[in-house]
Amino acid sequence: MTMVVIALLSIIGLVMIMALTVISANNVPVTEAPGVIPRLRQYLGHNVVETAPNADLPELRTGRHEIPAAALYDCCCLACRRLGWEITRQSGETLTLEATAPNRLIGFEDRVTVKCTDFGRYSMLNVRSAAGFGIADFGANLRHVMDLNEQVNSLLRTTSHTS
């Protein structure tokens, strides 16, 4: 019985090391707020992330930009292309786009949906990323959201948009 317990604990330990290795390779925050446990629960228990105004993970809080939504949408389209994502559907009328983003480690494609919305003097960037396979994404979808936000912010710093 003791050998079975030791073997089982060894397997659990090996699986945890492998999971943490994949999470680390996705280069997502692990120890930042709201803490290790909520983040591991997200990375190991979900295959979809979506921005929201009051999201628990700071990286998933809806982006607010002081430019018109149409200009933000143009930046998002360019950002997706620069990231090497394939835009599969886009609408300048509704300011939405869908793209496939390669999952760096597993080889599947994840689906990213982007929507830009005007709110008076600023616009909101809503992003949803869903894994193409499996029940856990090991942080890959959060990485997609972070990459898109970083690319959009970089473009906005280097480009001036007027209303």
List the helices and strands and how they pair.
Blueprint: H1 2-25, H2 36-45, E1 48-50, E2 63-65, H3 69-82, E3 86-91, E4 96-102, E5 109-119, E6 122-130, H4 140-158
Antiparallel strand pairs: 1-6, 2-6, 3-4, 4-5, 5-6
Helix pairs in contact: 3-4
Number of strands: 6
Overall, the morphology is: elongated
- How far apart the termini lie comes to 71 Å
The number of helices is 4
Q: Which value, in Å, is the CA radius of gyration?
A: 18 Å
Largest sheet: 6 strands, antiparallel
**Low-pLDDT segments:** none
Oligomer description: single chain
CATH topology title: Alpha-D-Glucose-1,6-Bisphosphate, Chain A, domain 4
Which CATH top level class fits? Alpha Beta
Label this structure with key terms.
163 residues; alpha+beta; Alpha-D-Glucose-1,6-Bisphosphate, Chain A, domain 4; six-stranded antiparallel β-sheet; 4 helices; 6 strands; elongated
Can you describe what's shown?
The relative contact order is 0.18. The longest helix has 24 residues, at 2-25. Strand 3 and strand 4 (96-102) form a beta hairpin. This protein is α+β, with helices and mostly antiparallel strands and 163 residues long. The chain has helices at 2-25, 36-45, 69-82, 140-158; strands at residues 48-50, 63-65, 86-91, 96-102, 109-119, 122-130. Strands 1, 2, 3, 4, 5 and 6 form a 6-stranded antiparallel sheet that branches. It contains 4 helices and 6 strands.
